[in-house]
């Protein structure tokens, strides 16, 4: 039996679709970071650290570690999109993680050992947008569900 809060078997809610899409994009970004041409200065790709001169799309500083983080974050999004609560948690807490990364990127010296991922200005502002966007998706796409659950309780 299905209720207003339980989707039918084989259907995905909007929050699940959003988590799946975000996860797929992160997976794609992680893969693209390893492709010369899409990642410029590929010969300068290092495992980690601010010395990595590789730039995804000629803009975002990446390293092997950075690409692996994107791949893992993408896989987590795809896996967590299987349930409504998992999808919401992925988007909400993932968004919080990206806001923390944005702040971290603003306060560290980009030429220091603390910039081990590595991050540049383009990464920092993308992290702000990702954080806000993921949190907004988590809250907006589950708002109706939360209100419905409260009415029926």
Describe the model.
The protein is mainly α. The chain has one domain. It is built from 5 helices and 3 strands. The chain has a 3-stranded antiparallel sheet with strand order 1-2-3. 35% of the residues are buried. Keywords: Membrane, Transmembrane, Transmembrane helix.
Identify low-pLDDT runs.
1-5
Major sheet strand order: 1-2-3
Number of domains: 1
How much of the sequence lies in strands comes to under 5%
Average residue pLDDT: 90
Any idea what the radius of gyration is?
18 Å
H/E series, N to C? HEEEHHHH
What structural class do the secondary elements suggest? mainly alpha
Biggest β-sheet: count, sense, barrel? 3 strands, antiparallel
Number of helices: 5
The gross shape turns out to be: globular
Distance linking N and C termini: 18 Å
What's the count of strands? 3
Level of helix content?
55-70%
Organism: Arthrobacter cheniae
Keywords: Membrane, Transmembrane, Transmembrane helix
Protein name: DUF4383 domain-containing protein
Transmembrane segments: 18-38, 58-78, 90-108, 124-142
Topology:
Blueprint: H1 14-32, E1 39-40, E2 55-56, E3 60-61, H2 64-80, H3 84-107, H4 121-140, H5 143-152
Antiparallel strand pairs: 1-2, 2-3
Helix pairs in contact: 1-2, 1-3, 2-3, 3-4
Main traits of this protein?
153 residues; transmembrane; 4% strand; globular; membrane; mainly alpha; three-stranded antiparallel beta sheet; DUF4383 domain-containing protein; disordered N terminus; 3 strands; transmembrane helix; 5 helices
Task: Provide a concise account of the structure shown.
With 153 residues, the protein is mainly α.
